[in-house]
Amino acid sequence: KAKEQGKNRYVLYDKDMDKAFSERMIIEKLLHTAMEKGEFEVHYQPQFDIQTQKVTGLEALLRWKSSELGNVSPVKFIPVAEDTHLIIPLGEWVLNQACIFIKELHDKGLKDLTVSVNISTIQILQSGFTQKIIDIIDSYKLNPECIELEITETILIESFTTVLKKLNKLKGMGIRIALDDFGKGYSSLNYLKQLPISTLKIDKSFIDSVSTDEEGRTITRHIITLGRSLGMTIIAEGVEYTEQLEYLKKYNCDRIQGYLFSKPLPGEEVKKLLNV
Ligand code: C2E
Ligand code: MG
Ligand code: MG
Ligand code: MG
After folding, report:
1. What are the EAL domain coordinates in residue numbering (predicted)?
2. Is the distance from the beta carbon of residue 259 to the nearest atom of ligand 1 less than 6 Å?
């Protein structure tokens, strides 16, 4: 036995591994029935114009309230949904919900509001992906320019040319593409050059560092300048403090999204916030 050999550290490590593994198994099992049980909901986090402080858009964020596990974070269940390809029907459901909600807001007079939906690599690589997206948006008679798809850099490591072709087609239809979590991964500047990106979302880790170190501040303001000179709209993610807001404003960041202004909210609360 490891413990008898005085290797307590390894025993603990094994237990943690075991726990993570069985938790994953449970999530996987429950995910399969979560949809039919109606356990998913979409919340929306408002994005604000940094100058006017008005809401310009909403990011759709999936929420899962499991009857057995309670609220499960997307950080935990999205990777499982991706591995099992459940993200394909789930992602389609999120897009439909987001379209229904933004349509309702447009009908109430908020014509310029956009909605952003996170899209996984698995979805993009699926055959017929672009047509499916176009058909969904069409079915609600929405202006494609009000829909933004958020992709991450990890998407791009695999199958760059395939992804590029599909994104170009969507962009050609007027749909906006946002590069999410910029700076978190490998951040190839080549992606900025080649992909049809309308919006650059600076990762929260850089926004955090605005409060803590000079290097973080320097990189953040140069990302803003770089993105803006490429004609992109810049959104700062995870803004929690006034000093971050002030810094971002000073260096011409376009929009902010973060707890300082609003957490992700259920649709009904978003409507209250927007007075509709
Ligand atoms: P993301 O797309 O980068 O979304 C932003 C995350 O940051 C959200 O976490 C949001 O609640 C959180 N956040 C926003 N402002 C603040 C802040 O000021 N402080 C802090 N601490 N956090 C903030 P959430 O909702 O837990 O989602 C986590 C990730 O899960 C998302 O990161 C996205 O990658 C993924 N995800 C969520 N919904 C979907 C979905 O429908 N489809 C796919 N494919 N992925 C999704
Ligand atoms: Mg996102
Ligand atoms: Mg992000
Ligand atoms: Mg993300």
Report:
1. 24-276
2. yes
